[in-house]
Amino acid sequence: MPDYITTYQSIQNECKTLTNGNPPTLIAVSKTKPYEVVREAYLQGIREFGENYIPEAIEKFTKLREEFPDADTSVNVHHIGPVQSGTLRKLFGVFSYTHGVGSFSSLHELLKRAEKEKKKIRYFLQTNLTGENTKHGFSLQTLLENKTNLASQQNEFCVWEGFMGMGPSSGDLMETTEVFTKLKNFREEHFPGLKLSMGMSGDYTLAVGLGSNYVRIGSKIFGEREYGAHSV
After folding, report:
1. Would you indicate the residue range of the signal peptide (predicted)?
2. pTM listed for this prediction
3. Are 4 and 49 in contact (CB under 8 A)?
């Protein structure tokens, strides 16, 4: 099997250099990869995984926890796709984080479901700073208009971790830098205690340099996706 951990640690070390020894949480995005890849990555020491497709993640990580009981407490699975009201109930029990809460209806449903399930999850509000119709999420103006109420949008089981932002689908690094900088400045001015989830395989060094607390790396660790287009 490929040596995933060496690449993972190499990226971690790069992030340490960029942050003077205070690197972000590095999420190894294993979506579309088979269970054997996740299993090997776990055996090599990776403990933070990112998944998009809920049924696929449930199958892989239920199997991992059955085979390796320690994984139940040592592994964090991050949901990195859009949160949809109709399917978010399936997040609980598998995912520790969800990075794609992009509407108030989904947020309110997540909060209610967390109290019902009595299982903990931490969430990020997804922002859309590029204006692309293919991306969902909040505008900064909407977040600012609801600033007073946002702090109360959590409970014993569902905790607001911060904001998630993505660069343009084109991958243009100049525009990506503008997007990441805008989100960083917004967080620092209005929500200084919260964290940022920014950066993927093609732009993580920009994100880390701008203070991202979580980066999502897929293709650099596991190779290109099995299907789909946009590399993480």
Report:
1. none
2. 0.94
3. no
